[in-house]
Amino acid sequence: MKVKSAYIHIPFCVKICTYCDFNKYFIQNQPVDHYLDCLIKEMEMSETRELQTMFVGGGTPTALDVHQLEKLLIAINNLFTITGEYSFEANPDELTIEKLQLLKRYGVNRLSMGVQTFNPKLLEVLGRSHKTEDIYSAVENARTVGFESISLDLMYQLPQQSLEDFKESLDLALALDIDHISSYGLILEPQTQFYNMYRKGKLSMPNEDVGEAMYEYLITRMHSSEMHQYELSNFGKVGHESEHNKVYWKNEGYYGFGAGASGYVDGERYTNVNPVNHYIKKIENNERPILHATQPTRTEQMEEEMFLGLRMNQGVSISRFHEKFDISINEIFGQTLSDLLERGLIKQSDDYFSLTERGKVIGNEVFEAFLLSV
Ligand code: SF4
Description:
- This protein has 15 helices and 19 strands.
- By secondary structure, it is α/β, with parallel strands linked by helices.
- It has helices at residues 32-45, 66-79, 97-105, 120-126, 132-145, 163-175, 193-199, 208-223, 243-249, 276-284, 298-309, 318-325, 329-342, 357-361, 363-373; strands at residues 5-10, 12-13, 25-26, 50-51, 53-58, 81-82, 86-90, 110-116, 150-156, 180-185, 228-231, 234-236, 255-257, 262-265, 268-272, 290-294, 316-317, 346-349, 352-355.
- It has a nine-stranded mixed β-sheet, with helices on both faces. Strands 14-15-16 form a three-stranded antiparallel β-sheet, with no helix packed on it.
- α1 packs parallel to α2 (66-79), α6 (163-175) runs parallel beside α8 and α11 runs antiparallel to α15 (363-373).
- The two termini are 25 Å apart.
- It has two domains: 5-249, Alpha-Beta Barrel (TIM Barrel); 298-373, Arc Repressor Mutant, subunit A (Orthogonal Bundle), CATH 1.10.10.920.
- Bound molecules: iron/sulfur cluster (SF4).
- The site of iron/sulfur cluster (SF4) has 11 residues, from loops.
- Iron/sulfur cluster binds at residues 13, 16-17, 20, 22, 24, 58-60, 91, 114.
- It is found in: Cytoplasm.
- It comes from Staphylococcus lloydii.
- Residues 1-231 form the Radical SAM core domain.
């Protein structure tokens, strides 16, 4: 199937957050210009020139200075025709008018801002580089420059965070009348500052019940606003769902460009080499910068179809499954589906199986059932 989407990874940040286990490096003393040259070379190697969606993420792409940013934007424009969503991830304190104008000039039509919380104390605990007031000025600047599609990332289940605190952040985000919100619970990942603090008893996390209550509140609050839930952690106004992210959940192909980026092309899932210097070396040697690549088996593809598709409110299409795998969904997953239906964790309507409200809260348990069943 023709690949219609691409992800570009900019693995640099101006400050390293205490909870972060993403693939990123403190930008100071990194070979940023050299990295961009190699990234552009990697993009030149790809066959596709027409894309429906593009997502530039990181790290933080807006950590680049204006010259670096323009170099990247020009290269993307020269190499690809992007017919649909063109998103840039951004930190609020880095969204200056100058950078926003550049993004706009080169066709970026959606901003995804890493806000995480409006609580100034929690922003500090998270080690974020921005302050609460930066969120307001970034949204205002983006609107002044003419961005119509703005998404905010909000986290919940943060250290010492109460349900009330999360409610307040959510209300403040909604009061900004933006178009899209992604909200994820914090997971303590090994090799982060948070994880070490937690092990030493220096970090107090809300218990699981509070985390569940926050997620349930999130769904209810969004339901009563204009934002409809279309994926477990994603909410948008009509016409503002992330088309790029839907490519992942629909288990479709995409390129991944940059150090540590992942892609899915012609039935092959691959991950690029990391760290930055290893990536640069591969590209300089005119090699594909692949660390590992696998071809998911048919069974794995069917499992992925289920647990990725069930993340979306719409769910998994019974007819699409049949079309894709030439076998009925019931023949493969019949027992699991009837168990989950009986337990009230999934429901069936017309052509779709989807999660119930309870199923959404314990989604991982549902997904695991499909891993075990084949
Ligand atoms: S800005 Fe994002 S990628 Fe960078 S350290 Fe913070 S959470 Fe990680």
